């Protein structure tokens, strides 16, 4: 009887732990930033300028006041981000309790060259993250953050 009770308690703790784990991860600033980056890359792959532009921070929108100028800039200067062969998330650094996130993205460009991109993500007043800039490093191993 005691063994059965112990098993039930252990199982109960595991179930509660598994239920709480994903909820905590969903609120993680790095996870939220990664979702925004992935959605913007998907928008680039779909040639959806409006959606891609929606993830740009107010500062970037100030530099590129419409989606067409923004999209043209990305197409010209950030070809690996615009048309990645594939990409994976590397390291992330969360600053000031999530006010900013620096996220490394390992990208294979359309020409097969490998790149590291470091995204600067800023939390907005509504709690969402917007992309405030991307630094590209050609043919490198992880740059660290």
UniProtKB/TrEMBL annotation:
It holds the Pfam family DUF4864. It comes from the Bacteria. Residues 1-25 form the signal peptide. Keywords: Signal. This is DUF4864 domain-containing protein. It comes from Gellertiella hungarica.
